[in-house]
């Protein structure tokens, strides 16, 4: 009974810490900024505007996609969540080094706060997507009811990856620069600015299938299928069998569990290196 009470107190303490760290990080991000929280909307909109002009007026890729503005913005919003969470997680433990040395608390709450902070921005950005959907008259399909589950899948994958990256960064600071480079490559390997149909028809069906095995790409495509257009390629179109969807889900679970395992094993030694 005493052990249960101790665990409950530790869990409650962790929740309070997550809440406070998330609130502090979110406020500090826009501290001394004239537009403040508006930047959480303006940044994705600015990138959207640039990409929309380039890929509709110059390369004309967007012409073949129904409701391309919503198509593009929905992909960017999901991608921004992924990059914000992972970039914020990489150096999170080192940045909180003073706190780690002074207070004994579950270290994972630092990473969890980064993901929750990104979720706040994601919710704000989703409201902009909803406005675009109304403006461009997109139809919400019944499959949209699965979007919350898709976002949970994405959050698990992102959190697990953040745990791994932050653990490596404690010992090897080069991982921060390496991850920035990898993200640039992953951006173009993920069907955000172009449709997966383009890869399927102009390069190789196998390359398109390989891209879709990436959990981030899978989530983006499934969300688009639910709220933008059924012309979006998903697993049923590319593989002919929904069971293939288990591969990115399995990758997500493996990254999440593996991240927890690696982080827990190394957490006791963090204070020595930060």
DSSP helix fraction: over 70%
Biggest β-sheet: count, sense, barrel?
Answer: none
Strand/helix succession: HHHHHHHHHHHHHH
Structural class: mainly alpha
Number of individual domains: 1
How many helices does DSSP assign? Answer: 14
Q: Give the radius of gyration.
A: 20 Å
Which stretches are poorly predicted, pLDDT < 50 over at least 5 residues?
A: none
How far is the N terminus from the C terminus?
36 Å
The overall average pLDDT, rounded, is 85
From the spread of the alpha carbons, the general shape counts as globular
Strand residue content: under 5%
Number of strands: 0
Salient structural properties:
14 helices, single chain
Would you mind describing this structure in some detail?
The chain has 274 residues and is mainly alpha-helical. The chain has one domain (34-273). The protein contains 14 helices and no strands. It has helices at residues 2-29, 39-58, 68-90, 92-95, 97-102, 108-136, 147-171, 174-189, 196-202, 205-212, 215-227, 235-239, 246-267, 270-273. Helix 7 runs antiparallel to helix 11. It is globular and about 55 Å long. 36% of the residues are buried.
């Amino acid at each position: 009974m005493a052990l249960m009470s101790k665990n409950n107190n530790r869990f409650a303490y962790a929740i309070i810490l997550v809440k406070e760290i998330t609130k502090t990080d979110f406020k500090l991000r826009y501290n001394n900024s004239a537009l403040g929280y508006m930047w959480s909307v303006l940044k994705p909109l600015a990138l959207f505007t640039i990409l929309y002009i380039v890929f509709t007026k110059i390369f004309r890729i967007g012409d073949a996609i129904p409701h391309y503005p919503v198509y593009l913005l929905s992909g960017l919003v999901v991608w921004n969540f992924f990059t914000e969470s992972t970039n914020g997680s990489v150096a999170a433990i080192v940045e909180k080094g003073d706190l780690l040395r002074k207070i004994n608390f579950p270290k994972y709450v630092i990473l969890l706060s980064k993901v929750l902070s990104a979720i706040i921005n994601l919710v704000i950005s989703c409201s902009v997507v909803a406005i675009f959907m109304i403006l461009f008259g997109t139809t919400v399909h019944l499959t949209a009811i699965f979007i919350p589950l898709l976002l949970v899948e994405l959050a698990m994958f992102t959190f697990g990856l953040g745990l791994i990256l932050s653990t490596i960064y404690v010992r090897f600071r080069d991982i921060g620069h390496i991850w920035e480079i990898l993200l640039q490559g992953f951006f173009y390997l993920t069907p955000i600015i172009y449709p997966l149909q383009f890869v399927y028809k102009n390069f190789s069906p196998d390359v398109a299938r390989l891209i879709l095995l990436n959990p981030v790409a899978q989530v983006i495509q499934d969300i688009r299928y639910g709220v933008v257009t059924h012309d979006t390629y998903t697993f049923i179109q590319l593989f002919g069998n929904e069971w293939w969807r288990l591969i990115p889900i399995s990758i997500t679970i493996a990254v999440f569990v593996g991240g927890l395992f690696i982080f827990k094993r190394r957490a006791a030694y963090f204070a020595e290196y930060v």
